[in-house]
Amino acid sequence: MPSLGLAWPPGRRTAADTGSVTAELAVGMVSLVLVLGAVLGVVRAGQAQIACTDAARAAAREVARGADEDRVAQVVTRLAGPDARVTLGRDAEMVRVVVSRPVTLPLPGTPQALVRAVAVGVPETTGPGATPPGSSSGSSPGKSPRATDGVAP
Predict the structure, then answer these.
(1) How would DSSP label each residue in 67-126?
(2) Model confidence pLDDT, tens digit, residues 130-141
(3) What is the DSSP string of 17-49?
(4) Taking the model in full, what pTM does it have?
(5) Distance CA 147, CA 27 (A)
(6) Helices 69-80 and 20-64, interaxial angle, to 10°?
(7) What's the CA gap between 110 and 112, in Å, rounded?
């Protein structure tokens, strides 16, 4: 009769069974550590993604207000960390900010993932006589430019 790996009668061990529990436990522990490392890596990448998104939004707001690149870099460093990189893009109608940051995953070989967030904004126009984007340029005599926008003074 072929052996199925079961000891009969119960409590009787064969030579082939010796050490099998130790080997199975060792394989199970390694698998558990790898799964835990993968879960922690996903959490770390998610946190970095949220930080990059917040930094990109704040940086786009600063660029839209007319801040210089040093101020934008300070905002990004404060919100996304010192290893974050920022790229600015501007045209007449929009500002675009890209914030990226490497994330080291807690796995063997220390692999890295790059998380990235993009935010856009409309440049603010300031100064006397400036017309906000999207509003009409003509105003009737005796009315302020804000009144033509439908905004109460």
Answers:
(1) --HHHHHHHHHHHH-TT-EEEEEE-SS-EEEEEEEEEE-SSTT--EEEEEEEEEEPPP--
(2) 445 554 444 444
(3) GTTHHHHHHHHHHHHHHHHHHHHHHHHHHHHHH
(4) 0.65
(5) 73
(6) 150
(7) 7
